[in-house]
């Protein structure tokens, strides 16, 4: 599933490709992608004649701002957008096509069919699902250490499931949560109430650094990426711990372990990220 950096890359790319284009009509081949309104005819009627003003992001959701509407789009597992000429063949799994007046088309392709689209009046999107209950935006200036510490509170929840919960902090998924916890030297199963202030500070910084670096990596690859198929979506970043089971930790050389935390495959270095800080003192 794309996480904040991938969605941010798609946002930037879409913003370059479709801003200023006017929608001539919308074709919907798979109505279940539409969550609001659910009727393809109404979706088409509302969007026709509107021009794309800009593309923004909230968590893992794209916000496509038009003259009088906001289209909120979630790619979920396999969603992809691509810009094509109208005469190019339509590929399999293309579910929604935004036809522009300049003869190009934004096509939404989704093999798994889990993606969603919601249409709102401007501003209304923040008062209703799916954006209503979203948590802190980690690359915003408002994501200060104080705001993060307040959100953490004194819960007995394990830190990894907390970070994956979009109601607390948005945009972090299974890959970047493992990366950030490794950078901060915090075991994924540590209870929040056991974290020292210094550890919370390290974690706050690690979240920002991890996501920013991944956004930069994605940003620098936009050009070649789009020129390939005219399609944008996931790509691989340099990962330090995720997917590296049984390989050596870049920091200490210890072997990277994999376990299941909160039902999710979890990669960590038991030496850099000890579960119980006290045990180190007992042993020595
Ligand atoms: Zn290590």
TrEMBL record:
Family matches, as NCBIfam families: fpg (TIGR00577), PRK01103.1 (NF002211)
Described function: Involved in base excision repair of DNA damaged by oxidation or by mutagenic agents. Acts as DNA glycosylase that recognizes and removes damaged bases. Has a preference for oxidized purines, such as 7,8-dihydro-8-oxoguanine (8-oxoG). Has AP (apurinic/apyrimidinic) lyase activity and introduces nicks in the DNA strand. Cleaves the DNA backbone by beta-delta elimination to generate a single-strand break at the site of the removed base with both 3'- and 5'-phosphates.
Cofactor binding note from Swiss-Prot or TrEMBL: Binds 1 zinc ion per subunit.
Catalytic activity of the protein: 2'-deoxyribonucleotide-(2'-deoxyribose 5'-phosphate)-2'-deoxyribonucleotide-DNA = a 3'-end 2'-deoxyribonucleotide-(2,3-dehydro-2,3-deoxyribose 5'-phosphate)-DNA + a 5'-end 5'-phospho-2'-deoxyribonucleoside-DNA + H(+); Hydrolysis of DNA containing ring-opened 7-methylguanine residues, releasing 2,6-diamino-4-hydroxy-5-(N-methyl)formamidopyrimidine
Subunit field text: Monomer.
Biological process terms in GO annotation: base-excision repair
Organism (species): Paenibacillus swuensis
Domain Formamidopyrimidine-DNA glycosylase catalytic: residue ranges: 2-115
Name of this protein: Formamidopyrimidine-DNA glycosylase
Binding site for DNA: 93, 112, 155
Record-annotated active site: 2-3, 60, 264
Cofactors required: Zn(2+)
Key words of the record: DNA damage, DNA repair, DNA-binding, Glycosidase, Hydrolase, Lyase, Metal-binding, Multifunctional enzyme, Zinc, Zinc-finger
UniProt-listed Enzyme Commission number(s): 3.2.2.23, 4.2.99.18
Family assignment from sequence similarity: Belongs to the FPG family.
GO MF annotation terms: 8-oxo-7,8-dihydroguanine DNA N-glycosylase activity; class I DNA-(apurinic or apyrimidinic site) endonuclease activity; damaged DNA binding; double-stranded DNA binding; zinc ion binding
Domain called FPG-type: residue spans: 240-274
Keyword rRNA processing: no
